[in-house]
């Protein structure tokens, strides 16, 4: 009884997290479509446009990709070639899937280090030491602060002015600082690392047999699409 309650509680939490991720992705898509549509109408109807529109859509698209990568890993939606897996025995298939998961974890860790070091330049935070994997943090120097770097076109909204005394020594921003849109780099890579680790444990526990979408879904769709004789 306790195991059932624990499983139901875990399922509710999992569904809640799924809804949050799906809602964020949907909002980003909606904003991209809305901004692009408004810009097209203004350009061809009124010979005008949103100066910041293109840059905003570019940032939103990058956020969508970085969030979507980790979400697709979680939902096993990434495409892949499974010709070799399908001819292997179950134990061999599990070993290959586990090897792929470990390689993905290493890749995600490298990506996380690189994205953190890049974003840290604009957030007045120390970069990591170590060439391949983080071994610590570098000592910060005043001359290495880059928080004053701004984007090109997106103006700084008044409701974000509270960050100026915290990170920019009180100096005002004309455009939004780069560390705000760039924060999705470490966040997205950290989510990818987390999802890859979760997949690895699912493979070890026998709850999942690969990282990619299988042909089972395609077979089911074809079966449903077949006309009845």
Set out the fold topology.
Elements: H1 2-46, H2 53-75, H3 83-86, H4 90-120, E1 128-129, E2 136-137, E3 150-155, H5 164-167, E4 175-177, H6 179-182, H7 184-205, H8 215-225
Antiparallel strand pairs: 1-2, 3-4
Helix pairs in contact: 1-2, 2-7, 4-7
Helical element count?
Answer: 8
Strand fraction band? Answer: 5-15%
Amino- and carboxy-terminal Cα gap: 47 Å
* Biggest sheet: strand arrangement: 1-2
Helices and strands, in order, run as HHHHEEEHEHHH
Helix content range: 55-70%
Give the number of DSSP strands: 4
User: Strand count, sense and closure of the main sheet?
Assistant: 2 strands, antiparallel
Principal-axis shape equals: globular
Radius of gyration: 23 Å
Low-confidence stretches: none
Give structural notes.
The protein is mainly α. The protein has 8 helices and 4 strands. The strands form 2 sheets. Strands 1-2 form a two-stranded antiparallel sheet. A two-stranded antiparallel sheet has the order 3-4. It is globular. The relative contact order is 0.13.
Quick recap:
The protein is mainly alpha-helical and 229 residues long. The protein has 8 helices and 4 strands.
Features:
229 residues; mainly alpha; two-stranded antiparallel sheet; 63% helix
